[in-house]
Design brief:
about 525 residues; mainly beta; Tachylectin-2, Chain A; Jelly Rolls; 8-stranded antiparallel sheet
Length: about 525
């Protein structure tokens, strides 16, 4: 067993981590925004090795993402355990930009979760729960009454009791803290802890990009008054420069092991190819300790390191998920996601056993709809993805293949489609800031409908190739600039996805594409 571990512990678009412990088991959730299912749930026994066991929002009845904009939908979630029940609380920002906070609960985190309990009069985002004895408390952020208009990001952290019978807030709202610095960045993501003689409030400030940071305050009573930590911010990388290899760290949650060690999960990004991060915000693990009743984060350096000594827990590795999905199970693997809530059954694993059938839908990736796209996160700076597909376009408007997506306005489509002449072509199309460009196109000779796809990325250089026979690769485009898949180009809070796509581009179609397998592996 290695004495150290490497960060990030969950690579790719897994931001805003929250964690809880039940005995020897640890559970972690992250944000999902416009992607469905929502709020993945991970399990670990050593804080280093994690496997996904489900989603908290796994039914359309729980999560309406119809029409939501990129980076709307599900914001930061918090997971907590109390008296035999798991609770996940989160924010939904809908297509009308209305935000509401709600709770789902379960007795088995890998099983069915309840329908949402929507909270009345719970303004703000990034809510959290705190349990003490038989009482439950809600913590959130909001714009203060009479906020100074000179500080556009002015917020306050507030507290209110939660009635676990009615699942509604009761009593008065109590202001706990307004953050470290007035107007320097939205105070959000509050988490409360009772350790020793103090109640501690840990929050995020500075926005979720380069100025992001973690700050804390403490009080001898839950309702305050809270005093600022004298060495705030307790964690940030904003002073290290944009050329530092780990960026925008913040949004933390704390966990104490069964042996008394303390650790922090936190989000951060890995810029590459310049200040661009296609992978979005990822989940990292950092040691902490208590000193003079305050937290010291990453003792000795004060910043997130690539490698740390392992937690003092028995190593528990899980079987690695297969790099290649042969679609020979009754359900899609947990790594596959949809854009927004799927409303029509455009996919099937049973119509042709051992294949994933995607029906061509009129919806396009460039629209804020639920297109016929099934994708997984890009999790590596260097990766290779391959797939085998059977498809014959009947008309020029029909296409199927792979897509690499950051948003509806920033993506690549690598597809087989029809041409006006009636022949089939392979085409690489780019959409960047709403502008469509055909990067490359090859006419195909008559073929039996079987085509193989390959996408490889080496930092920001993406390579696209296809084949009509196994391993007989033909380069279509080499060293395509992949920075349109970064947050810096597309905006928002998410990371890049790659997956299978089929569309009839606004027309009705009875056609379908069938995928025999899809393979992804990172280096």
């Amino acid at each position: 067993m290695s004495s150290t571990f490497r960060n990030p512990i969950i690579p790719g678009f897994y931001p805003d981590p929250s964690i809880c412990r039940v005995g020897d088991d640890y559970y972690l959730v992250t944000s999902t925004f416009e992607w469905f299912p929502g709020v993945p749930i991970f399990h670990s026994r050593d804080l280093v090795h994690w496997r996904q066991i489900g989603h908290a929002l796994h039914r359309p009845s729980q999560l309406n993402l119809d029409g939501v904009a990129p980076s709307s939908g599900i914001f930061a979630a918090t997971i907590r355990y109390h008296a035999g029940t798991f609770y996940v609380i989160t924010t939904l920002s809908d297509a009308q930009h209305k935000r509401r906070n709600f709770i789902v609960k379960a007795t088995d985190p890998a099983g069915e979760w309840s329908d949402p309990y929507v909270l009345d009069d719970a303004p703000g985002i990034d809510p959290s729960l705190f349990f003490e004895a038989e009482r439950a408390w809600y913590a959130g952020n909001r714009t203060p009454t009479g906020a100074d208009h000179r500080f556009t990001s002015q917020r306050e952290i507030w507290l209110q009791e939660l009635d676990l019978t009615t699942m509604q807030l009761v009593g008065e709202k109590i202001v706990l803290w307004t953050g470290m610095t007035r107007g320097a960045g939205v105070p959000e993501a509050p988490h409360l802890y009772h350790v020793g003689d103090y109640y501690y409030l840990v929050i995020a400030e500075g926005g979720t990009f380069h100025e992001h940071c973690v700050t804390m305050a403490r009080s001898r009573t839950l309702i305050g008054a809270y005093e600022d930590c004298p060495h705030n911010p307790i964690l940030t990388h904003r002073h290290l420069g944009r050329d530092y290899p780990i960026s925008n760290v913040g949004h933390a949650d704390l966990i104490e092991t069964q042996h008394g060690e303390w650790w922090m999960v936190v989000l951060g990004s890995r810029p590459y190819g310049g200040y661009f991060y296609n992978l979005g915000r990822e989940t990292w693990l950092v040691p902490v300790r208590w000193e003079d009743d305050w937290l010291i984060v990453s003792p000795g350096s004060g910043r997130i390191e690539w490698e740390y000594r392992r937690p003092q827990l028995p190593e528990c590795r899980f079987p690695s998920p297969p790099a290649c999905d042969h679609f020979d199970t009754p359900h899609l693997a947990l790594s596959w996601n949809f854009l927004r809530t799927p409303r029509s059954p455009f996919w099937s694993l049973s119509e042709r056993p051992g294949w994933l059938r995607l029906k061509l839908m009129p919806e396009r990736l460039s629209e804020r709809v639920n297109p016929a796209f099934i994708g997984r996160r890009q999790q590596h700076i260097h990766f290779s993805a391959r797939a085998a597909m059977r498809f014959t376009p009947a008309y020029a408007h029909e296409c199927a293949g792979l897509a690499l997506i950051q948003t509806d306005n920033f993506h690549f489509r690598f597809v087989c489609t029809g041409a006006p002449s009636g022949a089939a072509v392979v085409r690489l199309e780019q959409r960047a800031d709403g502008e469509e460009t055909v990067i490359a196109e090859h006419a195909l000779p008559p073929f039996g409908g079987m085509i193989y796809w390959k996408v490889e990325a080496h930092e920001q250089a993406y390579h696209f190739a296809y084949a009509l026979a196994p391993e007989a690769w033909v380069d279509l485009a080499v060293a395509v600039d992949g920075r349109i898949l970064s947050t810096q180009r597309a905006g928002g809070f998410t990371g890049a996805y790659i997956g299978m796509y089929a569309s009839s581009n606004g027309a009705a179609s009875d056609n379908a594409a069938e995928f025999d397998w899809f393979e992804y592996y990172g280096w």
